[in-house]
Design a protein that fits this description.
8 strands
Length: 174
């Protein structure tokens, strides 16, 4: 027999999961629209630059991001999910509350583009990209390097790469 408090908690969990499901559906729909309705991301891998394609855990498993290749050969990353242990009462984990555009602060952080314009270069790096941080609402320059098939070194910075911070993102396996 569920107490009233337990029922409220269960309802909150279902609401959060429903919101994530809708946002994930929107992300998949957007991905398919940009890649073609019948595109399989694994079958569309054509060269070493496409090793970035797929889903990655970001910042110590705080969220996930899916990279797709654009028609102009740049790469874009869209958030697909937040950490499963995220506290549904902490609005900063669900909404873009730090966005400089006040009208966007109530939007979900799931399904938004957070990395764009990444270009693959002959050194095996992806550079000249931009990264929007939902943690502070700022946009940074970003460069990415594949360390191994399951690890990315992500460097975000303003101005010069030496004045920035580095994270290691891990490939999401399902």
């Amino acid at each position: 027999d569920l107490s009233g408090r337990t029922m409220v908690q269960a309802t909150r969990r279902r609401a959060v999961l429903a919101g994530v499901t809708v946002a994930c559906f929107a992300s998949v729909t957007t991905f398919l629209f940009h890649r073609g309705a019948h595109a399989d991301p694994l079958q569309s891998i054509q060269g070493p630059e496409d090793a970035l394609l797929g889903e990655w855990w970001v910042d110590g498993y705080q969220s996930r991001l899916r990279f797709a290749k654009e028609q102009d050969e740049t790469f874009r990353g869209v958030t697909t999910c937040c950490a499963p242990e995220a506290d549904a009462r902490d609005e900063s984990l669900e909404h873009d509350i730090h966005n400089p555009d006040r009208s966007l602060r109530s939007r979900s952080i799931v399904g938004i583009t957070t990395v764009w314009k990444l270009k693959y270069d002959s050194n095996g790096e992806y550079s000249n990209g931009l990264l929007y941080s939902t943690q502070d609402g700022k946009t940074y320059q970003v460069k990415v390097k594949l360390i191994d098939p399951d690890s990315l070194k992500v460097r975000r910075y303003t101005g010069q790469p030496t004045f920035g911070s580095t994270q290691v993102w891990k490939r999401a396996h399902f």
